[in-house]
Amino acid sequence: MNISNNAVVQFHYTLSDETGELESSTGSAPLLYMHGQEQMLPKLEAALEGKAAGDTLELTLAPADAYGEVQANAIQDIQVKYLHGAKKWRPGMKAWIQTEEGQRQVTVVKVGMFKAQIDVNHPLAGKTLTFKLEILNVREASSEEIAHGHAHGEGGHQH
């Protein structure tokens, strides 16, 4: 089966930038996504269209096609109590905050007793990224997955 809308794709990936490898799923469970549900970077999803199990893909994306350029005005003040992921905060640490659009990862710039300055740019903003993917399996989405708008892992519904 080839990747098309509502296909569930199982894959491994390696992500790198100009300085080297940033992360990889190799050695852990493969990832799943449902094609055509805007769950991937648009250019990456477009490059996967028509591929099949056993195919590999290497794609380099400029910042504008990945996580955007770094925005200088993306520094905000927030109360420390709204930072999630650690008990004690230091500049450079990654934190999670709850927004109206859901959870978002931010970088701590400066931290005081009660307030912190955070950078809300995506941690990969401004970077040219290379994705290497190995497609392990492609299958049709179940009616339940289509209704929910995302792929379910082994054992079915996991949320």
UniProtKB/TrEMBL annotation:
Record's signal peptide: none
Cellular component terms per the entry's GO annotation: cytoplasm
Subcellular location: Cytoplasm
Domain (PPIase FKBP-type): residue spans on this chain: 6-69
Matches recorded under SUPFAM superfamilies: FKBP-like
Keywords (A to Z) from UniProt: Chaperone, Cytoplasm, Isomerase, Rotamase
GO biological process terms held by the UniProt record: protein refolding
Reaction(s) this enzyme catalyzes, per UniProt: [protein]-peptidylproline (omega=180) = [protein]-peptidylproline (omega=0)
InterPro entries: PPIase_dom_sf, PPIase_FKBP_dom
Principal location class: cytoplasm
EC assignment: 5.2.1.8
GO MF entries: peptidyl-prolyl cis-trans isomerase activity
Family statement drawn from the similarity comment of this UniProt entry: Belongs to the FKBP-type PPIase family.
Classification via PANTHER family: FKBP-TYPE PEPTIDYL-PROLYL CIS-TRANS ISOMERASE SLYD
Reported function: Also involved in hydrogenase metallocenter assembly, probably by participating in the nickel insertion step. This function in hydrogenase biosynthesis requires chaperone activity and the presence of the metal-binding domain, but not PPIase activity.
Protein name: Peptidyl-prolyl cis-trans isomerase
Organism expressing this protein natively: Arsukibacterium ikkense
